[in-house]
Amino acid sequence: MGQVISHREIFFNFVCELNEADISYYFMRGFSTLPERPDGDIDMVCGLKHWDAFTEIASRHLFKETVYNYGFAEYCDMMYYPYFTPGEPDHSITNGRFRIDSYNSLHMNSPYNNFETKWTISKKFSDHVFDKRVKIESDAHYYIPSIECEITLLVLRDILDLKGKWKQKHINRINSLKPDCKREELTDCVEKVLPKAGAVVDYIYENNFDQIFNLVMER
After folding, report:
1. Burial letters 97-122, b for 16+ CB under 10 A, else e
2. Are the beta carbons of 129 and 105 closer than 8 angstroms?
3. CA 181, CA 178: separation in Å to the nearest integer?
């Protein structure tokens, strides 16, 4: 009888192969409790030019139940593939397994159609996140956004995808990052994707998160 491989081992075998193939990617959310387990779903962005190679590698380690194509926006079809580690559920892990929500580009709900459709986030900012990503040494090394990029991504998540309904865990995460955040770099990040960047950053530092949605959506 063969040895049972844990969900953690399957996940990091997958990550190791991504690294060996020099696939460009980063974990956007859900990574704060790695390597033991994800802190929810792991949201992952893959470089557009590596998407086909990424999905080929993922198919060797993970399974997916469906594929989402949200249509073309600015420079690509917006693809979203939710992957899962196979095997018997491990009830100590959220979802019973590692779930990896994978995106071929950075796309979120658009305010221009009452958040009913999606659109790509500024390619300039997307490229910036890749340029500034941070390497984390673990069972297999992986990449996460810089502090300033991660805060900006969380702000975008809560004001666009969640329509200003802030998740407390996102606020907690931002507040845990602020002591090591470079405020000028954060303002530069926010400026790439949102209007009134200086005021947005002021609200972040004042813990006045509920006002950010109204500020950004003002006409």
Report:
1. bbbbbbbbbbbbbbeeeebeebbbbe
2. no
3. 5
Per the DSSP assignment, residues forming a β-bridge with 99 are 84
Q: How confident is the model at residue 1 (pLDDT cuts 50, 70, 90)?
A: very low
Greatest CA span in the chain, whole angstroms? 65
Sequence-separated contacts (24+) of 39-44 with Cβ below 8 Å: 39/94, 39/169, 40/94, 41/82, 41/94, 41/95, 41/99, 41/100, 41/101, 42/98, 42/99, 42/100, 42/101, 43/101, 43/103, 44/100, 44/101, 44/102, 44/103
pLDDT in tens, 126-183: 999 999 999 999 999 999 999 999 999 999 999 999 999 999 999 999 999 999 999 9
